[in-house]
Amino acid sequence: MKRKRLAAVLMVLVLAFTMGLAGCSGKSAEKEANSDGQSVQAASEDGKLPEKFKIGVVIWSTVDDLGKASADMLNYASDVLGCEMVYNTDISSPETQITATENLIAAGCDAVAICNYSDDILPKIARICEENEVYFTLIWRSIADPEVKEIVESSEFYLGNTCEDEEEIGYRMGKTLYDKGSRNIGVITMEKGDTTADARDRGFDKACQELGMNRISEVRNNTLTAAETTKAVENFLASFPELDGIFITGGSNTILEGVIQALALHNKTGEVKVACVDFISDLDKYLEDGAIDAISGGHFVDPLFSYMLMVNKLAGTPLSDQCETMNLNFVNLTSPEDAVNYYQYVEGESFPYNEEEIRDMVKYFNPDMTIDKLKGIAGSYSVDDVVARHSAQNQADADGGGQSGTDAGGQADAGAESDAE
Amino acid sequence: MKKKFKLQNLIVPIAMPLIVFLIFFVCQPDRFGTPTGIMIMLQQSIINSVIGFGLCYNLVIDTWDFSSGSQLVLAGLLGAFAAQYFGIAGLIVVTVLVSVLLGTLTGTIYSVFKIPSIIVTIGLMLVYESAGTLFNGGASITIPPAIGFLGKSPYIFGVGILAYLLAYVLYHHTKFGYNVRAVGNGEMIAKSIGIKTMNVRFLCFVICGIFVGIASILQVSYGGAIAPKGGMDTMSMVFPPFMGVFIGQYLERYCDIMLGVFLGVFSMTMINSGLIAMGLPGTLQQVVTGLFMILFMAVSINKDKLTFRKRKEAV
């Protein structure tokens, strides 16, 4: 009896040891394949990464228009690559973002993407990530403070950031309002200290100074509802009969709907021009009604590029030895047709990058991928770019070709070339 | 017995809104105080006043309700969703029903577990906020313009007046209102005369739910859309009504408390509009609003002490 039990224990031990070895050898085989960069595709036939990496995201919300679209995009990419996403939206101030990052690390995240409210928290976050050996990136943000930038960029765990030219978009919105005849503008924005809103504000003020427009009044609130925004616009209208333009630095979360409602209530639709950053739903209808005169957004894909920096690093195929900045363009919609195309190809029913294009952004699957190519993909992002790639693909599918029309790599080449030019 | 008319009872309640009005009118005569502007400010005061009417019952008996903002948002989301299928009837019925149910839930948890109201309502605020973000995939809901007529003048005034009358009658002419005032004046005495104070507290949450429901209908109709909120964002929605109730409680010795709530909210709305009319930067606007609140509370709390001291000195 005793012998039998001993034999059983030995068998279990041997089996466990063998399985462990098999697991290790499997993993090392994959890593080997990665390092020579030749037979990586063969190493994972299911199209998934060798490990199920856990990626954390510190974001204000995953339910508003922008936050939800971004989370959907990241979830889709993670499904394709075999990663797991964890979101922490329990943030109400810069300080709570530090706690949120710690919580994600405690939850076992291998890398964390942070949409930071201000630069001040970044040295602390860098220290936390270093202590826990967790990679981190920034999304929708660049570091403005030179001292903070130096500290953060010196961290080996900081992989980079994806950002848009916020100041330029503020300027562009101001210029569009000027071109449409607006001279006296009310501004709806965030409280001071929000890096993005502040940059958009600066750009708008620059346009006001250069073009001779008046910023007649402003409302600052981080938690505006549609009704509160309607109130704010009504106050503008009551106090400033000369008001002929409204600039909204962030129109998601029903803020833009509130503006449109207020103007409709007072029969000012079309008379008071509206320029806004961030897309909302039903844009085609609003553009057709003339309720919106200039709108930029579509930057929900921003976190995807920071995500790719992290995934490539975790997969053992880093795209760069240093931190990198990925620049993304805003999408401008000027007509209802633009909006229809946007919702058909970019956000909504489909994603701007399909499964193959997402895998191609990862060196583990696509040995030709480089940081410049990834930057090229980000740099060439626009409605036209997505329509060109996916309408061709749809056409090919319809023709029964069964082959993907374009690949991210090829498109990245074009982007990289245009960058070089 | 006929009540003696006191001039003070007329002057004091209108003094504060009048002073606020005059300050901004003197500073910005061209921009502030136009007939259109006054109408807009009155209109904007309605929603917060209606919330204030509901919160008033709780605050009179020293019960804090921080969950009202999240109740308003969750009820509004469900109501706006129903409005897409059942029109205005769906909006009204579902919003009020949900809000009353949420008020009942809050009251039940409070009275069963006897947890301090601040803790219960903050905890439930988080629950209601999360429920709002889970509903309909967390998407915002826009109502068709034809349904939102209640948020426009003159309908919004009609609803506001009806809500005021309801609040007035409940507070002054019902047994419930009498019990609320009795508990507010001293819980021990109220208990000793046979009032079941915990029942009163429970009913206050339910009644508050009715007013929050009405406010939610107006909020959705006025803004034309409603979005879920998280991260305790809804808490800031109850501060203007709170302020209205504090002012109402102070003015209670001169006029009806519900009228005082409206005057308080109206004064706060005027400050908000006046600061925008002055073109002050947003950050400074908040500083001025905060200072006004502190100043008012400091004066109202210390006024009685000063009067008492003066009388003592005179004696």
TrEMBL record, chain A:
The keyword tRNA-binding does not apply. Residues 390-421 are annotated as: Disordered. It comes from Diplocloster agilis. Residues 60-296 form the Periplasmic binding protein domain. The lineage of its organism: Bacteria, Bacillati, Bacillota, Clostridia, Lachnospirales. Keywords: Signal. Its main location: other. InterPro entries: Bact_Solute-Bind_Prot2, Peripla_BP_I, SBP_2_dom. It holds the Pfam family Peripla_BP_4. Residues 1-22 form the signal peptide. Residues 399-408 have a biased composition (Gly residues). This is Substrate-binding domain-containing protein. Belongs to the bacterial solute-binding protein 2 family. One of its GO terms (cellular component) is outer membrane-bounded periplasmic space. It comes from the Bacteria. Gene3D superfamilies: 3.40.50.2300. It is found in: Cell envelope. GO terms for molecular function: carbohydrate binding.
UniProtKB/TrEMBL annotation, chain B:
Keywords: Cell inner membrane, Cell membrane, Membrane, Transmembrane, Transmembrane helix, Transport. The keyword Transmembrane helix applies. The chain crosses the membrane at residues 7-26, 38-60, 72-102, 108-128, 155-171, 200-222, 234-251, 258-278, 284-302. It is a multi-pass membrane protein. It comes from the Bacteria. Its main location: membrane. Pfam families: BPD_transp_2 (PF02653). It is found in: Cell membrane. GO terms for cellular component: plasma membrane. One of its GO terms (molecular function) is transmembrane transporter activity. This is ABC transporter permease. The lineage of its organism: Bacteria, Bacillati, Bacillota, Clostridia, Lachnospirales.
